[in-house]
Specification:
Blueprint lengths: L1 H21 L3 E6 L3 E6 L2 E5 L22 E4 L4 E2 L16 E2 L4 E4 L10 E3 L6 E3 L9 E4 L16 E4 L11 E3 L1 H8 L7 E4 L7
Parallel strand pairs: 1-13, 5-6, 11-12
Antiparallel strand pairs: 1-2, 2-3, 4-13, 5-10, 7-8, 7-9, 10-11
Amino acid sequence: MRSFRWLSLALGAFLYVSLSAAEPAVCVKPAPGGTWVLEVRGQSFPCAVGRSGVAQPGAKREGDGMTPSGDYAFRELLFRADKIDAQRLPAAWKPRPLVPTDGWCDDARDPQYNTRVSLPYAPSHEELWRLDDLYDLIVPIGYNDDPVVPGRGSAIFFHVASPDYGPTAGCVAVSKAHYLQILALVKPGDIIRIEAAKPAK
């Protein structure tokens, strides 16, 4: 009986840990007035999403200007070493400096669709080395990357917002100051949950 009891406790603890691990660390959700918030570890930050809002589950398509809804893992941290002191970034992220030849393929017909590529690159792509500050910090969100489905959307990032929190092309963005705070609260592999607004009745 004692062995069974301890086994039950051990299995219960394992089940609890497993279930807890699946819970999102970050949640992006609609807020009053057509705005959006990002919640993490009990804190709330204003954020920007796609210019066309957040897609209903499974509805995201390339070029639609929508942020995909659902649960996705944070991938690696990319940053501009010429603008951001690496010492300010949590070591758990193992930050990788961007270089001017970094790009991201958004051509659904190309075999490298929705992956980082080296420039120059003939198929349609995004340049990650920007003149503004929006890509000073980038964490690719694990949407449509395992496996990649052509046309379902690419280059969905967590990045720095414009000063006026203008809409993105489909990414999630916060201010640089808030971004640095959030990095200290999460780690690679943590889940970001993006909630779509409820359809109007």
